[in-house]
Design a protein that fits this description.
By secondary structure, the chain is α/β, with parallel strands linked by helices. It folds into four domains: 3-162, Beta-Lactamase (2-Layer Sandwich); 181-202 and 326-419, 3-Layer(bba) Sandwich (Glucose Oxidase, domain 1); 214-317, PtsI, HPr-binding domain (Enzyme I, Chain A, domain 2, Orthogonal Bundle), CATH 1.10.274.10; 429-747, TIM Barrel (Alpha-Beta Barrel), CATH 3.20.20. The strands form three sheets. Strands 7-14-13-9-10-11-12-8 form an eight-stranded mixed sheet. An eight-stranded parallel beta barrel has the order 15-16-17-18-19-20-21-22, surrounded by six helices. Helix 5 runs antiparallel to helix 7 (259-270), helix 8 runs antiparallel to helix 9 and helix 24 packs across helix 25 (704-711). The radius of gyration is 30 Å and the shape is elongated.
Length: 748
């Protein structure tokens, strides 16, 4: 790039900074900026369009177009050339705008006389904020240097927007981080919570996007990058001996030492940006690329670069993770994503969790369920919107997050919390009573667990035992494989805390979205249908044997119940059962005390197992329906995909008929059967499961009260008749008919 142009670019940025230094209101500042850009680039027109909402752009300032069109001209995302720039987040450069694909004629602006058009997206860290446009009467394409200069200016505009430079009397836009925001995500863990935001990674605010001294800024960048490289080298040395961790950190190291990355940032500084702004410009472009890439490996590598950019920004600004802010008394964690070990460090101090990424089966979701903390995942843009200390309300029942809610929303939300608290108080009065229906059937209600911290709920909730203890959490939160002695000690404490109540230990359920930090991930096209759970255990029997031995030693003569996950066919159960027999024989030879009695069961999560030979149902001592996985495989509907997940009802006649068939087969062989999963904790679903033959249900502790309350008011033979009548009428779901029955019982 010629030195003359670089100097002109720095001059323009310098003028922009001067325009910002005055006491002008937001609109006056925007007007100055459009005049400066038009003059500096030799164009008749410069316009700034900003988002009013996620789908609408508004002309907020212009030099050259009809001034009366400001705040009057609006367009939808993708509409016209401006909307095209905003939607694709890519530059549009054309010498003949009226003939360009997608051009929209807006007579109120008077732009039809301008032929050339150059539009660049205004975005901050991948978040689209608007579009910056220059136009001229002369038909010409803008040069690469001119495009680059406008992109630099757009980046500075984004930083100015973040700093609230365009807010005030006659403002072009509202103050950021001050307006109420409602975000709809996906339920990761049910429950409701109100509190104040605690950002896992606080926002780094760049207060000096423009700099006069490129030499000094380059020195600052070089020093910060050297410090970054040193920290990565230290991470690498600490991971010595751990090949998988070393591979991840080597990828970090590759980016940290990238000459291209350094060259681009240095070039940005030469054109007038500060070191911090140069890093953010590169980071924004990387995030924009990341949003377009579907390849998981490439997305992960760009995510590494994003993380390195954050580290570099913290070094440059001094805004480290330790900002001096104190955790509020009612913290709700907001993060792009978070690992299980980090989440456990917060523990039960958290009132709720909101993640921009994550999944309903992620490590974080597993820990959140274990801690009974409401969780919403896929909450788009929440880390861009939230600031530490913001008032926030999390509705884990609906997957909705209210950030800085209005008084009416807050009041309605508090009413919901109060109603739930009052209901839980009512449920406490039946805590020690059996879940006996009006027709005299007693349903066993058990709780799901995964941490020692869950066990106090065993008595408080009225649960009769632990229907599912997830053993993978102890593997997920460590950086290396736990030792047998550690696992044995933990399992022993679990049995101690259960005080004689039955605990069903599910063996290691990893794979799919639960990848161990020290286990090399497999690049599978569909991991949910891939190498996971019992398949991993049978292919890597050493880990399974170690875990079974730990369970036997933990029992120390007490009863032991073990369940193998994701069994798809009879031979897998037989092979796993053989491993248990070998472990028992080995422990006996070593002189260890064997369990008083042992139950070995399987989790039915694939439709195939429902059609296993009769011999399987005779040999397996109990079966537990893994509802979450079974439902997604039955309907071929990925539970991570909101577009299809909500399409299928658990009380769909086909699914209930399928479950009823399993219950009938178990009844013939006298095989104990339970239903485990989120649906077991929903009262109407639980009632239907009981009506078709399930006598044990396992759920989160907070659901036991509501489920027990409904079961005690209903007669299973009546509900079964309601289900069969709805099926005979050809209804797709029995929900409506059963809800009508439930309302009648309530009124009665």
């Amino acid at each position: 790039m010629p030195e003359r142009f670089e100097t002109e670019s720095r001059k323009l940025l310098g003028r922009l900074r001067d325009a910002m230094a005055g006491d002008d209101a937001g609109q006056a500042r925007l007007n100055k900026i459009t005049h400066l850009i038009a003059t500096s680039m030799g164009c008749e027109v410069c316009s700034i369009y900003l988002f009013r909402d996620q789908d609408t752009l508004e002309l907020c300032a212009t030099e050259g177009l009809n001034a009366a069109a400001v705040h009057e001209t609006r367009m939808k995302l993708g509409e016209g050339l401006v909307g095209r720039v905003a939607k694709r987040r890519k530059v549009v450069n054309t010498p003949n705008a009226p003939q360009a694909p997608g051009f929209r004629f807006m007579p109120e602006t008077g732009e039809e006389i301008y032929s050339s058009f150059l539009g660049v997206p205004v975005q901050r860290l991948g978040e689209p904020l608007g579009v910056l446009v220059v136009q001229s009467k002369t038909a010409r394409e803008f040069s690469a240097d001119e495009i680059y200069a406008l992109e630099v200016v757009a980046m500075v505009l984004a930083e100015m927007t973040e700093l609230g430079a365009f807010v005030g009397e006659g403002a072009a836009m509202s103050a950021r981080h001050s307006q109420p925001v409602m975000t709809r995500g996906t339920v990761g863990q049910e429950g409701v919570a109100e509190g104040h935001v605690w950002l896992h990674e606080p926002r780094v605010v760049v207060s000096n996007p423009i700099a006069d001294d490129p030499v000094r800024e380059t020195e600052r960048l070089t020093e910060a990058v050297d410090q970054l490289r040193l920290s990565v080298d230290q991470m690498l040395s600490m991971a010595a001996g751990d090949k998988d961790q070393q591979q991840v950190i080597e990828a970090y190291r590759m980016f940290a030492n990238s000459k291209g990355w350094m060259r681009r940032m240095t070039q940005d500084i030469q054109n007038g940006l500060s070191a911090e702004a140069a890093v953010e410009k590169e980071q924004s472009q990387a995030r924009a690329r990341m949003s377009e890439i579907t390849d998981a490996y490439l997305r992960e590598r760009l995510s590494d670069l994003d993380d390195l950019s954050n580290r570099l920004l913290r070094i440059l600004t001094g805004q480290g993770a330790d900002t001096g802010a104190e955790l509020p008394r009612d913290p709700i964690l907001v993060a792009r994503n978070i690992g299980p070990a980090e989440l456990l460090e917060y523990g039960r101090k958290l009132k709720g969790i909101v993640l921009e990424g994550g999944s309903v089966g992620s490590h974080a979701a597993i820990v959140a369920r274990a801690l009974a903390i409401p969780l919403v995942v896929h909450a788009s843009r929440i880390t861009n919107e939230a600031l530490n200390g913001d008032h926030i309300m999390v509705d884990g029942e609906q997957g909705i997050v209210h950030l800085r809610p209005e008084d009416t929303v807050a009041a309605a939300f508090r009413d919901k919390i109060a109603m739930q608290a009052a209901a839980q108080e009512r449920y406490s009065s039946i805590r020690d009573l059996p879940a006996m229906t009006r027709c005299g059937n007693t349903i066993g209600l058990h709780m799901n667990a995964g941490l020692m911290a869950d066990l106090p709920s065993l008595g408080n909730s009225g649960a009769e035992g632990v229907g599912l203890f997830r053993t993978e959490l102890q593997f997920l939160v460590r950086n290396k494989m736990p030792r047998r002695s550690e696992l044995s000690a933990l399992y022993s404490r679990v049995l101690d805390a259960a005080q004689g109540k039955r605990v069903v230990f599910r063996t290691l359920d990893i794979g799919s979205d639960k990848v161990l930090p020290y286990m090399k991930p497999n690049d599978e096209p569909n991991p949910a249908l891939g190498w996971r759970a019992i398949r991993v255990g049978l292919d890597k029997p050493g880990v399974m044997r170690m875990q079974l031995q730990a369970l036997i030693r933990a029992a120390n003569g007490r009863p032991l119940t073990v369940m193998f996950p994701f069994v798809a066919q009879f031979e897998e159960f037989r092979a796993a059962r053989a491993e248990m027999d070998k472990a028992l024989a080995r422990e006996d030879r070593l002189g260890h005390v064997l369990p008083e009695r042992i139950e070995v069961g399987a989790m039915l999560e694939t439709p195939s197992l429902a059609f296993a030979p009769q011999k399987f149902f005779e040999e397996v001592e109990f079966l537990s329906i893994g509802g979450n996985d079974l439902k997604q495989f039955f309907f071929a509907a990925d539970r991570e995909n909101e577009r299809v997940r909500r399409r299928y009802d658990t009380l769909n006649v086909s699914f209930l008929t399928f479950l009823e068939g399993i219950a009938d087969r178990c009844r013939v062989t006298d095989t104990a059967l339970s239903f485990c999963g989120e649906d077991a904790g929903r009262p109407v679903e639980a009632l239907c499961f009981a009506a078709i033959g399930f006598r044990t249900l396992s759920m989160r502790p907070a659901s036991i009260g509501p489920v027990k309350s409904l079961l005690r008011r209903c007669a299973l033979d009546e509900v079964r008749q309601v289900i069969h009548d709805a099926r005979d009428r050809g209804e797709m779901s029995v929900r409506g008919a059963v809800m009508e029955y439930v309302r009648a019982q309530h009124q009665g």
